[in-house]
Amino acid sequence: MAKQTIKVKINGREREASVEPRLLLVHLIRESLGQTGTHIGCDTSNCGACTVMLNGKTIKSCTMFAVQADGGELMTVEGLIQNGQWHPLQEGFKEEHGLQCGFCTPGMLMSSYALLQKNPNPTEEDIRWGISGNLCRCTGYQNIVKAVQFAAKKMAQGGTK
Amino acid sequence: MIPPAFEYLRPKTVPEAVQMLQQHGDEAKILSGGQSLIPMMKLRLARPAFIIDINRIAGLSYIKEEGGFLKIGGLTREAELEASHIVKSKYPLLMDTAEVIADPQVRNMATVGGNLAHGDPANDHPATMMALGAQIVATGSKGERVIPIEQFFVTLFTTALKQDEILTEIRIPIPPAKSGGAYEKLERKVGDFATAAVAVQLTLDASGAVASAGIALTNAGPTPIKAKKAEDFLRGKKPDAATIAQAAQLASEAAQPSADLRGPAAYKVGLAKELAKRAIATAVARAGK
Lengths: 161, 289
Prior knowledge:
The complex is a heterodimer.
Chain A: E1 4-10, E2 13-19, H1 25-32, E3 51-54, E4 57-60, E5 73-75, H2 88-95, H3 105-118, H4 124-130, H5 142-158
Parallel strand pairs in A: 1-5
Antiparallel strand pairs in A: 1-2, 3-4, 3-5
Chain B: E1 7-9, H1 14-24, E2 28-31, H2 37-42, E3 50-53, E4 63-66, E5 69-73, H3 78-82, H4 85-90, H5 92-99, H6 104-109, H7 112-117, H8 125-132, E6 135-140, E7 143-148, E8 153-155, E9 158-159, E10 166-173, E11 179-186, E12 196-204, E13 210-218, E14 225-226, H9 228-234, H10 241-253, H11 265-288
Parallel strand pairs in B: 1-3, 2-3
Antiparallel strand pairs in B: 4-5, 5-10, 6-7, 6-10, 8-9, 11-12, 12-13, 13-14
């Protein structure tokens, strides 16, 4: 099938790519745009490891065609770091031991980021619902919840968004 | 998993999309939220030669009350239902349903129209829309037609939509005062299809008796199932515990589930009974408020 040229903004940078329509967004992100922080986990829309933000909303990038994102704005886990400073969520995952193998972490970070944007002061239940589209087979989620709580607290004190 | 190759079409208007459907016939598939279609394409359960992406068609996403109906645009996302003030305040059955569909990322993409047009009895909106007595607006080459929800689901993955039709709107009659609804679903984990689920919509009269009832079952047969005997039984009666228990029994008798990894058929029938009991009780409590 004929390739099409698409334009996306990823983590603030305009990029262009020539894609086959069947190319999945996650492959565009990892292979054409070289942002390998986003992981491919189950590849069946269950695990959430491939979660990215498209136009301000989290989506599973293994369940969308790259052509659908044409003209859109993407943010991946690489976009969390600002001016060399870790995002409070990244600090939280480090301080609270919110990961073991780390495979689910990029997706967890993006879902948590979207949650805190909508709800800066979430309850434990809000956090568990917020990350309910992301599977972690190591932590039992306990420390992920603590990591998000750490970030919420830090953001409330520091005024970071 | 890489889906099979296809040609990608992106119409800007409904008539343009309809024309594409006419031109490509069986070889074309509408891409709405894509949260069922894309996984099916990856598994080679669907291999359309043409994908018609309707996501850029303007004006197909809305939630509004108009002319006696709650009107939901075919492209409205589940997340938009969840965030809707109208839905939250007046349509608890719809809110309950939207909240338990898949997970947050999927709900950001998945559409109400797609959930229905896919014709999967394991989806949650089909039973909910049956309980609500909804109507489906289909737009095709001959214009719009309205399909009552009870005639919409033909069999597994088959709806009354014609080859050149697109589901463009869902209409739910605005419930009268003293109405309430509830959706009770058991899933193995967040994001799974229902092991069983029951949708209930009720209206009470001035004396507190049931004036009208809509009850339907999710994932209990090849289509969503309307529990007519349970509805008839409830009508005119005061919904006390014994009446609710009997209605739940009748609702479960309408179930025809198959055994699968989620459990044996008898278990699912038993589950439908318990979920029906809970959903009716919650709907009654909400209607009384």
